[in-house]
Amino acid sequence: MTRVQLVEISKQYGSTLAVDGVNADIAEGEFVTLLGPSGCGKTTTLRMVAGLVEPTAGQIRFDGQVVNNVPPHKRNIGLAFQSHALFPHLSVYRNIAFGLEVKGSPKADIQNRVREMLEMIELTHHADRMPSQLSGGQQQRVALARMLATDPRVLLFDEPLSALDRNLRDTLKYSILDLQRRTKKTAIYVTHDQSEAFAISDRIFVMNEGRIEQAGTQLDIYLRPHTEFVAGFVGDNNAIPAEVEGVVPSLPGEPRLLDVRAAGMRLRGSDPGNIRVGDRVLVFVRPENIDVLDAASAVDEPNVVHGRIEQIVFEGPTVRVLVDASGVLIKVTSSGLGRLTLLDKERRDVMLRLQDVTVVRDDAAVAA
Amino acid sequence: MAVAAASAPRIENRSGGFSLRWLGNALAHGYVWAWLAIFALPFMATLAYSLRTPDGIWTLSAYQYVFGSFKENLLLSVQTTVITIVINLLISVPAAYAIVRYPLPGKSFILSALNLSLYTPAAVMGVSLVIAYAFLFRIPQTMTGLIAAYVVGTFPLMLVPVIVALRDLPMVFEEAARTLGATRMQTFWRVELPLLGPGISAGILLTFVIIFNEFLVTLFIAGPSTTTAALRVYNLTRTAGFQPSTAALATTMQLVSFVVVLLFFRFFGSRYLKGTYLI
């Protein structure tokens, strides 16, 4: 149970700033994911917490204690690597025992602990195998056991599942979450896979170009993105350029709504808080949050727009529809039985009802 | 389709192809064996010569000399070889570590400079060593002098394979060990050194073969009490002419070399030389 704080940490390699003033306060027992594209600085941040990379500036604190100058072997952390990193010359048993052996634990203790770990990962009968004799999933499980054997304060995961196939990834994802819940250890998990991040995290930190773009719960990140990057990176999204026309009066404590106009469409969406009337904005709406209505059901209210179906793709559980609405192409994902009624509607006029609409300032337009 | 392909007209073709393939195989085997014979011939001739008296009688009597004074020459060769290998290791492993793992200005220049001794003609090196030993270090004709010369001449043979092995060794093992609580030294002894096995064993084998059979540089710097096996064979050929006893010593040397390499492959070959650790 350790609280991990990152205070304004930065890492500079030559003239590139890999990590640029990252702040994070991770509570005891919390499971946090650093999510972002490759090169966004998430792995460098994790390696700084592990002590493998020295920050250029800023502080890393475990339970309030600054650990910047503590070498990795004294930080008492567990790190899971993308390539499991099992020692190829040691058996499964010796791999798990490694951390305890270098600490000089008594032989009997090591034996008990390794047995316990082998039972946990259900590989008791594989103790004498070499890592190369195990399957990919077994290797990663041994790596997890090795990392937990020394009872570390903080668990760090550097894309531990990205080298595995999809089914295995899904199973192991929940094993990792289960392990963390049972041990109640603080965990930091790095991934570029949003579904992984959504499935296991208490909180997600979306990173881009060395900075944290947004930190929040899965729902915050998914439904209320604060920046164009977050809205575009997490999940499939429609981005519609628009201009702010007015602010909708709201009760105190209610989220503020904005009226925007986009190519003849009147839309209304939640305001992240930094937008004024007249600003160029992007309106984001997720394909699965759009209903397709009958063309005749013309209702004059915001977020209900007129369009024409351009393309229909049947994907089994979902149907993807491309709708031309006043010259803007809008992606719609329809599921449920209603999706089947769409299949013969190509080139037909329809109405779309857009829900959970978010407005984000268009940084490109601001810069221009 | 597969059934149609195996129909009657094809079978005739295949029998023709078979005899051609057989011929090709025979030629390939013949070629390999012919070259093997050519390479083995000098050794076989020496062996035959050592087993016959001038009167044409086959006997092992020439080999009695091997167990005479030549035993000491052999022992000296083995001693100097082993000590040189140990010193080479002590120099090369830390050097390779520094060169690969740490930023070093002028790295490629340093590497080229270190390899210089490999490109120095043995005669030039011999003369330089005679001069240096006599006037600078005062160790002419000693075992120390021999070993020093061998180390200077062969440590790149150890250094280069270790550098290559260390470069191919992913950093991730070192990092895993460190985060599991191992100090730098523990990481080195328990993880990196064992994983460098392929590089180190290649270096040992190369150094052994070169030093055990080294003769030209030795000729310059050896004294009466530091005559190696190779030098003894040369001296005998020069002074006594080519006797069966000399051939017996040469054959013995060859056999020792051969057996050591064979044992090496037997014990380390499957594990280290194939580099199976990382695959």
Description:
The complex is a heterodimer of chains A (368) and B (279). With 368 residues, chain A is an alpha+beta fold. Chain A folds into 2 domains: 4-223, P-loop containing nucleotide triphosphate hydrolases (Rossmann fold); 236-367, OB fold (Dihydrolipoamide Acetyltransferase, E2P) (Beta Barrel). Helices cover 25% and strands 36% of the residues of chain A. Chain A contains 9 helices and 20 strands. In chain A, a hairpin with a 2-residue loop joins strand 12 (257-262) and strand 13 (265-270). Chain B is globular and about 75 Å long. Chain B has 13 helices and no strands. Chain B has helices at 2-5, 8-50, 70-101, 107-114, 116-119, 122-137, 143-168, 171-179, 184-195, 197-212, 216-221, 229-240, 244-273. With 279 residues, chain B is mainly α. Chain B folds into 2 domains: 2-50; 62-278, MetI-like (MetI-like fold, Orthogonal Bundle), CATH 1.10.3720.10. In chain B, helix 3 (70-101) packs parallel to helix 7, helix 3 packs antiparallel against helix 10 and helix 7 (143-168) runs antiparallel to helix 10 (197-212). Classes of the chains: A alpha+beta (368), B mainly alpha (279). The A-B interface holds A 50-52, 71-79, 81, 83, 85, 87-89, 98-99, 101-103, 132, 146-147, 150, 156 and B 170, 172-173, 175-183, 186, 190-191, 194-195, 197, 276-279.
What is the helix content of chain A?
A: 10-25%
CATH level 4 superfamily of the largest domain in chain A: P-loop containing nucleotide triphosphate hydrolases
Q: In total, how many domains does the architecture of chain B comprise?
A: 2
Q: Kindly state the percentage of residues in helix of chain B.
A: over 70%
